[in-house]
Every structure is written in C-alpha cells, then in structure tokens.
Specification:
heterodimer, A: 240 residues, alpha/beta, 25% strand, B: 219 residues, mainly alpha, flat
Chain lengths: 240, 219
C-alpha cells in the first residue's frame, strides 16, 4: 500500500532522514519508535507531505506522492492524521469538527455528514459531547474527537504522531483503547509512539529510527526481546 | 464666557444630517478597506513573490504619506488625468478605503500568523482546499484575536473622516464650519459636532464589544 524508496529529508544542512526505504501492507499496523530527534515524526509527516522530502519517492496505492503536487488534496483525503496536540478547530463544535472536511473537501451532503459524524462519536464514546466546544473537553476526549474527525473522511490509512504524548497519564488508556479498536477493524496504521506496551501488543511491525536512519525493523516480539542492533538495545534499556 | 447654545438651535437639523453623510462614506470606506486589506494580507503571507512585493510596496506608500495628501491627490488629479469629474463622496471612499486597507492588511497579517500552525496542518491533512481553509478555519480564528485592533482602526477612520471637509464634502465637520461662519460663533457648533463624533465612536465601541462577546462563545 505504501512504498517508500530512499527517502531523505534535510532542514538546511541538517540531515534528519537518511535514505529510508520500507513498505507497508494494507491492514498492517506499524509502530515507529526511537529516541527524540531521531526523525520519527518527520518521517510520518513526509507520508502525507506535511514535510516535502528532499529526495527519494513515496508511493501510496501506486501513486507517486512526490510527483503529483496538484493531486495532493485528493491523496491527503485518503490519509487520516492524528497530531500530538489534537489541533481541533476551536471555533466549531465537536460535531462541526467532524462534519467540516467531508462537506468541504469531498462534497458530502450535510445530512449524511451529520449521520456519519454521530456514528463516529458513538464509536469513540463521545456521543453526548456532540454540541460541546473543544475547549470544554479533557485531553483524552480531544484526542478521541481528533481520531473521529480523521475517520470521518473514511481514510484508507491513518497516521498517528505521538497521539498520547501530550496527555495526562490517566487519559492515555482511553485513547489507546480507541486505537486498538481501530487496529482490530483492519485499518492500516502508522503510529509514532513512546508507548512501548502499545507497540508490543498492537503493532504487526516495529521500525526503530535513530539519527534519521532506519536502524532496524521487525516483529515486536523478536524486536523487544532480542534487538539486533546495539543502538536499539541501548534505547530499550533506557525506556523499558 | 459668553456661550450661547440657543443660537445654534435652528441649525441643529442641518448638522444632524451630517451624521448620515459622514456615516455613509465611512461605511463604504470600511467595507472597501476590509476587503482590500484581507486580500493584501493574503498576498503578504502567500508564496507568490510578485504579489508579496506588491502588497509591501502598497502598504509602504499608503502608510508613508499623509492621508490628507492622498485625499487631495485623488480628488484633484483624477479629473486632471482622466477628465472624469470625481465627486467628493467617491474621492472620500477611495482615499479612506485605500489608506485604511494598508493598516488593516498589517493587522490581519499579524492575526493570521498568530493562529497556531497546527490548525493549518490539521486542515491540510484533512485535504481541505486552501481557499476554504483560509475562509473557514484560519480567518475566523485570526479575527477573534485582532478584533480590538480592528475596532481601533475603524474608530480612527470614523474620526479622521473629518478631513474630508477640506475637499468641500458636507460632512459633520464641514457643517460645523458652515454654521460657525454663518453665526460668527465657532465654539458652539464645534462643540456640538464634537459630541456627535464622540457618540458615534461610543456606538462603534459597543458594537465591537458585542461582536467580541459573540466570538468568545467557544471559549
């Protein structure tokens, strides 16, 4: 579904991603882990062109992402993204947050958009918050709304950029539950995370990045038990 | 002190009519200034270099010269250059609208840049087109932050509108001068229109507060 070839990204002279190649299958859940500053988030943001790669290519469903600047809206509509800091639209109610993009970007009718939005709120357990404004929600609730907002576009792929890092500890679980649910439903997911438990339990594959290099990838079981590289071993010693 | 307000009583209807005359062109000038100002602000933050250059040059010229000069140039030069006999009303709208747009564009630019960059990224990630994103996501949030500064600009424009009296437009200020010349007493009519200007500005202030309160609904 996603095919990344020799992806590199420079900020000025600073090489943040170096020659990364990997591919992700439909329905796969991939966790990206690594120390801060390793380029995890930048890699994720390249997948929907929030960052423009310096070189290399990204293909999604056979379409070259880097070549088609004009079609970028259409491609992004198929890729949901969840941010660390939620980025809900503060001047819209929860329901409006969910309905806005389907109506504006895909031309979905208001009635259909609302029905879909209410379904999704039900799914993330926030049906009663439909008419609330984001500022009145807790962090965990905001992130669940953000996930629902991304799902409202009916994406084929979901990107998560440290979705639980800005949350109070007691709210991490409710967000991870929603994500687990989503993984079970067969959604293709790429998750940048510091939640090793989640990576271990839910991911089909783990990518370990360090200093912009894809050092190691593999199944969670073997990766967490017997990391092949020195750097991964070091990292896991520190976080586990 | 020999203030005698009874003498201006017959002229009061004449001066009150000035409220409407002043408000009429101030209203159109604010509309023109807001539309142009928004466009210029979008030029300034956009990626097209020529547009950015144009908007910066425009702002520099209209902020860098006196408003009364711009008004005179428009009023006297358009007939000279094109033969079209421009009315004081139209000159006033143009001069005030064009001048104000330079200031408003700076206010809006700052407002847009103060909106969290994440809002832009969230809209982009959802595949929302640029125009819709600006209109529905970025500008409404920017507007909330800049409303006090914007109201300030509108208040300044309302008061400075008095300089159209210099091109013979019969606004509030001009009417006070006419009455003053008629009576050989200037203080009373000037004080009278001064009070009216103050009331107009108070009205604007109240409207501003109301809008602000409405926009705060989501907090």
């Amino acid at each position: 579904m996603i095919d990344v070839q020799a992806l590199s990204k420079k900020f000025g002279d600073n090489l943040v991603l170096s020659d990364i190649s990997t591919s992700i299958q439909k329905g796969e859940v991939v966790a990206i882990i690594g120390p801060s500053g390793s380029g995890k988030s930048t890699f994720l943001r390249c997948l929907n062109l929030l960052e423009t790669p310096s070189s290399g290519s990204i293909e999604i469903n056979g379409k070259n992402l880097t070549a088609s600047k004009k079609e970028i809206h259409k491609i992004r509509q198929q890729i949901g993204m969840v941010f660390q800091h939620f980025h809900l639209f503060p001047h819209m109610t929860v329901l409006e947050n969910l309905m806005y993009a389907p109506m504006k970007a895909k031309g979905v009718k208001k009635y259909d958009a609302e029905e879909k939005a209410r379904q999704l709120l039900e799914r993330v357990g926030l049906a009663q918050k439909a008419d609330a404004y984001p500022n009145s929600l807790s962090g965990g609730q905001k992130q669940r709304v953000a996930i629902a907002r991304a799902l409202a576009m009916e994406p084929e792929l979901m990107l998560f950029d440290e979705p639980t890092s800005a949350l109070d500890p007691e709210m991490v679980k409710e967000v991870l539950e929603v994500m687990k649910d989503l993984a079970k439903s067969g959604m293709t997911m790429v998750v940048v995370t510091h939640e090793m438990g989640f990576a271990r339990e839910v991911a089909d594959r783990v990518l370990f990045l360090d200093h912009g290099v894809l050092v190691e990838e593999g199944e969670p079981e073997s990766f967490f038990k017997h990391p092949a590289s020195e750097r991964a071993r070091d990292f896991l010693d520190k976080v586990l | 002190m020999n203030l005698d307000f009874s003498q201006i009583v017959p002229y009061i209807p004449f001066m009150l009519e000035g409220i409407w005359v002043t408000l009429k062109f101030v209203f159109f000038a604010i509309i023109l200034g807001s539309i142009l100002g928004t466009l210029l602000a979008l030029f300034k933050i956009g990626s097209a270099k020529p547009l950015r250059w144009f908007a910066d040059a425009y702002t520099s010229i209209f902020r860098g010269t006196p408003l009364i000069l711009q008004l005179m140039i428009i009023y006297y030069s358009i007939p000279q250059l094109t033969g079209y006999d421009i009315s004081p009303f139209l000159s006033a709208i143009l001069a005030f609208g064009l001048n104000s747009s330079a200031y408003i564009s700076e206010i809006i630019r700052a407002g847009i840049q103060a909106v969290d960059k994440g809002q832009l990224e969230a809209a982009q990630a959802l595949g929302v087109p640029y125009g819709a994103m600006m209109k529905d996501i970025i500008l409404p949030q920017a507007l909330k932050n800049i409303l006090p500064a914007l109201m300030n600009e509108f208040i300044t424009l309302t008061k400075e509108s008095a300089i159209v009296s210099t091109i013979g437009y019969l606004d509030l200020m001009r009417r006070a001068q006419v009455v003053g010349a008629d009576l050989f007493r200037n203080f009373e009519p000037l004080l009278f229109v001064g009070l009216i200007y103050w009331c107009l500005v108070m009205g604007l202030t109240v409207i501003g507060r109301m809008v602000e309160r409405r926009l705060k609904l989501s907090d």
